[in-house]
Amino acid sequence: MAEARTEQPVRTNTGPGRLLIAVYLIFAIAATSRATLQIVTRLDEAPLAYLLSALAAVVYIVAAVGLARAGHAGRRVALACCAVELVGVVGVGAFSLVRPDLFPDETVWSGFGSGYGYIPLLLPVLGLAWLYRTR
Amino acid sequence: MNAAASPVDGVPAVAAIVLSLLVAVWALIATLRHRAPDRIQLIGLGVLELALLALAVLAGVALAGGDQPGEPGAFFGYLVTLVCLPPLAGVLARMEPTRWGSSIVCAICLVTPVVVVRLQQTWEVLGG
Questions:
Q1: What is the DSSP string of A81-112?
Q2: Are B89 and B108 in contact (CB under 8 A)?
Q3: Mutate: best of B84, B98, B109, B118, partner A, most A CBs <10 A
Q4: Complex ipTM, two decimals?
Q5: Could you report the per-residue pLDDT of A50-79, keeping only the tens digit for each?
Q6: What pTM, to 2 d.p., does this model score?
Q7: Which of B104, B109, B115 should one mutate to test binding to chain A, selecting the residue with the greatest count of A CBs within 10 A?
């Protein structure tokens, strides 16, 4: 019904934040299962790509937890994760274009996240915007 | 290759995809109208879950019959994820009884068809 009380500082884990956490959760699941499978079955084929998948997975999990726990520590954790993600997706995206030989298989962040509808590129930006709005 | 039909290609898969998209549209409308997740969304998620469970049962029957997915690891990963998505949407929707709850249902119902298609791709061997 009515949710007009906005005097309290907005928490990162309600409203739009909850949607953000849900999307982070989905990406955490996607990246974790993908990285696990790749590392367990064929790490030698594309070690860099698969270890980056694992890093992405960890970052998504920690970001989701940070946003969900709200509070100061949670915010700082989420902020760090969003920054790492943004650097990661832009860096890996650019690198996978310049040196495709280093990435014989896709990671979540290859081609700026094109394999995942560019959501990996959008997510950290939305995360940072949300942290900024609720500060 | 084409002789043994994929168990995840039939009517339940199409039904799940269509149903998921319908719930997504309904939830999107609710989001735009500032409505919390309503009964129709929750029922839709329930029916969607039934369709996905039917898909899982079909896959199980095919496996028992000796068929094998092209990429077993990925296939089972997607199958488990898929069956967990509607309950996840339902729980999150109940936790967030605002328009954002509806937006969560919409987002997860947009992801579900993608996972169904990936599931179908991992059943077939990537023969080029």
A1: HHHHHHHHHHHHHHHHHH-GGG-SS--TTGGG
A2: yes
A3: B98
A4: 0.87
A5: 888 899 999 999 999 999 988 889 999 999
A6: 0.88
A7: B104
